[in-house]
Design goal:
two-stranded antiparallel ribbon; eight-stranded parallel β-barrel; alpha/beta; globular; about 375 residues; TIM Barrel; 16 strands
Length: about 375
């Protein structure tokens, strides 16, 4: 599989969303009759699209709206919502900042310490609306925040870092013990982010209830530019899904794969499922919702890093309601709305009735898929030319 890139050195070819397409089969199904539900830790959810744990995407109100729609929105416990009693005022500052000021402003605003009482308060506010509550934090804060979150009624806890591994080496601080943490938890633990077969398998063996897949593909993330690391999402999803399937055969336990980032439009979400995802996590598409707290802006989780930011603030603009983005009717032509409708229609056209059947559709290498016959769209910057 590897190609020579120089004397004595090979590199493996990997693929992203723009380089592949899905080939229709010999059967088609009514899109209204396909089943897009997904399951984690024995509980099923109607919408397999999660809203990412980013401050421009998810606050309490958005989490409630997403829960009522049948999906999950992840609240960032390391963010604005748990640092400030009045997060709206802070979010307004970020939205009004110039591009030149944005990163420095965000860095300063995130220096304020997280208030543990606000963690419990936000979770209880979400649970008061009788919807699932999912929260996220970095490994360094997991031990401290988890007990508070679980006591407040949190349903799923996410531990998220740029690159997650079981074997972390440090002489400066105590290394987070993933296996011990998962074994003591009474609620499902999702861990991320990973992109390789070996690490995915080790995280499953450590007790993860689900895995986030993706390093650096997000619209507001600059990790790939700053650190030079990452694996395109199609290959990352295929490889980690292979680990999931091997773990199922060996242990009899199915651990869902959640492709996280890099998906702007419905077609990319469909390709992620075909590559093996059980669910997907999306940020920028939801940052465009009227209900999103970012006011048409979106920034990465590591934008606030005091020494080496690995994210930036981008303007995505507000284009519609959460309902329109999830279920339509779409009022834009770029595929960023009615994501559920796009998934169901794609499944119907491919002849698959469930998400798991989606894993078996034919994927072809098609680098011209975005441009073939689209000269007018590209020239006029409409539809697929945007």
């Amino acid at each position: 599989m590897a190609e020579w890139i120089g004397k004595g050195r090979r590199a493996r070819r990997c693929y992203g969303f723009d380089e592949v397409a899905l080939a229709p089969g010999s059967v088609t199904i009514n899109p209204n009759e396909v089943d897009i539900r997904w399951t984690i830790a024995g509980k099923a959810y109607e919408v397999p699209i999660l809203a990412a744990a980013m401050d421009g995407v998810v606050d309490v109100a958005f989490a409630v709206a997403m829960g009522r729609a049948g999906g999950l929105a992840v609240l960032n416990l390391d963010g604005i919502q748990t640092r400030y009693e009045n997060p709206d005022a802070v979010l307004e500052q970020i939205a009004k900042a110039s591009p030149q000021e944005a990163t420095r402003l965000v860095q300063g605003l995130y220096l304020k310490s997280v208030k543990e009482d606000l963690i419990a308060k936000r979770i209880k506010e979400i649970k008061a609306s009788k919807v699932p509550c999912v929260v996220s934090c970095i490994p360094q804060n997991a031990q401290k925040f988890f007990g508070i979150a679980q006591a407040a009624g949190c349903d799923i806890f996410v531990i998220q870092s740029t690159v997650a591994t079981i074997r972390h080496i440090s002489s400066q601080y105590k290394v987070f013990d993933v296996h011990k943490f998962c074994s003591k938890s009474k609620i499902p633990i999702i861990i991320g982010n990973c992109v390789t077969y070996e690490v995915a398998l080790e995280l499953m063996e450590a007790g993860a209830a689900g895995l986030l897949v993706g390093v650096g593909p997000g619209a507001a993330c600059t990790t790939r530019g700053v650190l030079g690391i990452g694996v395109p999402q199609i290959t990352a999803t295929v490889d980690t899904a292979a680990a999931r399937d091997y773990y199922l055969k060996r242990k009899g336990k199915y651990i869902p794969i959640i492709t996280d980032g890099g998906m702007r439009i419905g077609g990319e979400i469909c390709k992620a499922f075909a590559a093996g995802a059980d669910a997907v996590m999306v940020g920028s598409a939801f940052a465009r919702a009227k209900e999103a707290p970012g006011r048409g802006f979106h920034w990465g989780m590591a934008t606030s890093h005091a020494n080496l930011p690995r994210g930036t603030r981008v303007q995505v603009k507000t284009t519609g309601t959460l309902k329109e983005i999830l279920f339509g009717p779409a009022n834009v032509d770029d595929g960023s709305q009615n994501l559920v409708g796009a998934l169901k229609t794609s499944m119907g056209s491919l002849g698959v009735a469930t998400i798991k059947e989606m894993h078996d559709v034919e994927i072809i290498i098609a680098p011209s898929i975005q441009t073939e016959g689209k000269v007018f769209q590209v020239g006029q910057r409409v539809g697929m030319g945007q």
